[in-house]
Amino acid sequence: MPVASRALALSPLSAAIDLLMPPRCAACKAPVARANRFCPDCFAALPALAAPTCARCGVPLPPQAGGATECLACFRDPPPFDRAAAPFAYEGPARLAVLRLKNGREELARLMAPFMLRTLELAPGALLVPVPLHRLRLFVRGYNQAERLAEELARLACARHLPDALLRVRATPSSRGLSRAQRVANVAGAFRVNPRHAAAIRGRPVVLVDDVLTTGATASACAGALKRAGASAVHVLTWARVAPVFDATYHARPDRVGPDGEG
Ligand SMILES: [Zn+2]
Ligand SMILES: [Zn+2]
To answer: How remote is the CA of residue 29 from the centroid of ligand 2, in Å?
Structure first.
């Protein structure tokens, strides 16, 4: 399915359609001069994640963190991944671009991947592995947006892409509106490493790719499966992450999870 749509996206027919239909901003859909770009206003409004961020999960650290390098959540209960990186908060034009990416504009992966690569230096020999979509979503959408991003990242970084390294062994109900603890339970045991790629993963660093990091529950479940399969390190690279709002006691407010759910 994705093969056919990709062929179309790259074909002369697609170029002809571009000529007839003026290119639109990747976020607000305003006309732009060149395809696969943000308009100047959206580009200027991209919500870059400001330092300092947690060395482990990448969440912006509140002023009360002082000299701490990790957030309290990672300090208390370190996630199975070694580091998560994202260029943007899941807000404004960065959020709109994800919605477009998931709703037919798979070519936006080419715009997004270079921003992502700037936030994470790939270890030599790193394998790029997308978070898999469950089959029903894949059927409805026709492609996995995380796979499109991983494919572009691999192309830019001359790294190996293993699109089916992780398998979703059970469908997970929508995580919309769930707390972090509920999301962790929701995805527990939902992923495993494809036995075909077990040998390739053993002893190698893996970069797990997704569009958005919300609570980290999905990334943790995938990273756990990759670590159990012998990955030497698991870094998580996303286009955006939900940046929590901290209360005065330096606790992320649990109600602040992604409004659009996972997937
Ligand atoms: Zn725009
Ligand atoms: Zn953290």
So the answer is: 34
